Amino acid sequence: MKVAVIGATHAGVFAAKQTKAEHPDAQIDVFEKNHTVSFLSCGIALWIGDHVSSPSKMFYESPESLTEQGITMHMGTEVTEADLAAKHLVYKDLASGKETAADYDKIVITTGSKAIKPNLPGIYSDKVFDSKNWDNANELKEATSDIKSAIVIGAGYIGAELAEQLSVTGKKVTLIDGLDRVLAKNTSEDFSSRFQEEYKKHGVELELNQMVSSFEDTENGVKVTTDKGTYEADIAILGIGFLPNTGLFKGQVDMLKNGAIETNEYMETSVPDVFAAGDAATVFYNPTEKYDYIPLATNAVRQGILVGKNIENKSVAYQGTQATSAVELYDLAYAATGLTKESAAMKGVDAESVTISEDYRPDFMLSTTEVQASLTWEKGTGRIVGGAFMSKHDISQAANLVSLAIENKMTIDQLSMTDFFFQPNFGQPINYVSSVAMAAVAKASK
C-alpha cells in the first residue's frame, strides 16, 4: 500500500505514525513545505513571555524521528497539483524547484489551516506580524524583545494570550476586537467580564466592538485605524482566526462553504480512499449533533489516529468532539467544553444555563479558593451541551468531566446524582460539578 500524507503538523504526523503502526509494510510519503513538524503553536505567547524551558521542546516529533520509524519525509516540499480521483500528485522541492509526479493508493489531506489575513491597506508591513507557525514564532520572539508597545488584533484565545504575556513583561498593550467583549466566542459574559477586569488592572487598553480598516507605517512603528479610532504602537500582531488550507482540492471533494473538507465517521472524504483530518477537515460536534469546523490540536491528533486505523479497513468510528479547551490569563484559569447559552442560540440549540460560585473545598481548611461554574443544557430533554469553570484553583479536569458527560448524552439530572468522592483536602461534601448540576435541575424544574 502506497500512502501520501499532505501536511505534517498534528493530524499529518499522527496519521503517518498510526498508518505505519497498523501497516508496517506500507510506503508512506509525507509532504511538508516547512522544515519542521508537530510545532505546538499554542506555546507562542508563553515563549514570548519567557515561560518556555526550551523552544526545541515545542516540538514532540522531528523529521529525523519519523524517518527512523520508516516514514519517508519530503521536507521543504509543496504539493502543487492533486488529482484526488486518480490519486495522482505533483510535488515540488522548494529549494531546487524540481517537480516530481507520483501515484498513490491512498491520499491523506492534513494541510491544516491558514491564518485569516484580510486584504487591508498596509497589512503586509514588516511591522505587522502573524502568529501561526514556527517562523512567525521566531519573528515575534525577536521583535518583542526590545519593544515598548504592541497592538494585538483579535481577542480570541490567541490574541488574549499574546496581550496578557506582553502586558506582564512590561509592554503597553492595546487589544482590538470586532466583538463587544474579549473571548466572546469562547465564553459567556459572566466569564469574559472577569478577564476584562484583569486586563484593565494590568494596563491593557481594550478597544472592542470595532473593525480594523488599515495599517500604516510610522517613523517609530505602526498606526492601526479602525472604524472608531486610531492607535499607534511599535508593532501590531494579528490573531484574527483561521480558515482551512484546502484551496488545492476545491471542486474535488465535498466541503463546507469555508473550505473545510467533509468526511464520514471513518475520516474518509467523498472520494474513496481519500482521507482528511485536522484543521483541513470538519468535526462531528456532539453538542449540536452536526458537522462543524473547529480547529483544535486535540481534534487533529485524534482524527489523525483514526485515519491510520481506518485507512484500509473501516473499523473505528469517530466519537465526535466537544471542543474542550482552556486558557490561563493572569493566573485566572478558564476551562470549558461544548456550548454556552449564547453560542447554542447561534447554532440553533434551544438551551438554558446556570452559573454558581462557591469555594472548592471546606472553609475550615486553612486556605480555599472560589470556583465559578456554569452548565448549559438543552431545554426539554435536559441533555448537557456545555460547561465552563473559572478559578485560580486548577479546575481543568472539571471541563474534561463535563466533556465526557456531553459525549455520553448525560442529562443534568444524571450529572447531579453522579458519585464524586469527598475529602477536605480536595473538595466539598458536594463537589462543585455536582452543585452546578443541582442548580441546573432546580432552574429547569421551575
Structural class: alpha/beta
The percent of residues in helical segments reads 10-25%
Oligomer status:
single chain
Distance between the termini: 60 Å
- Main beta sheet, described? 5 strands, parallel
Molecular shape: globular
Alpha-carbon Rg, integer: 23 Å
Average pLDDT metric = 97
Query: Which architecture name of the largest domain does CATH use?
Result: 3-Layer(bba) Sandwich
Strand order of the largest sheet: 3-2-1-7-18
Task: Tell me the number of structural domains.
Answer: 3
Number of helices: 11
CATH class of the largest domain: Alpha Beta
So, the CATH homologous superfamily of the largest domain? FAD/NAD(P)-binding domain
Q: How many DSSP-defined strands?
A: 25
Q: Enter the CATH topology name of the largest domain.
A: FAD/NAD(P)-binding domain
Unreliable sequence segments: none
Write out key terms for the chains shown.
single chain; 446 residues; alpha/beta; FAD/NAD(P)-binding domain; 24% helix
Give a short overview.
The chain has helices spanning 11-22, 44-48, 63-68, 134-143, 157-168, 189-201, 297-310, 341-346, 396-407, 412-416, 432-445; strands at 2-6, 27-32, 72-75, 77-83, 88-93, 99-103, 106-109, 113-115, 128-129, 149-153, 172-176, 205-207, 212-217, 222-226, 230-233, 235-238, 242-244, 274-276, 283-285, 290-292, 325-329, 332-338, 351-359, 370-378, 384-391. By secondary structure, the protein is α/β, with parallel strands linked by helices. It has three domains: 2-37 and 54-114 and 243-310, FAD/NAD(P)-binding domain (3-Layer(bba) Sandwich); 128-238, FAD/NAD(P)-binding domain (3-Layer(bba) Sandwich); 325-445, 2-Layer Sandwich (Enolase-like, domain 1), CATH 3.30.390.
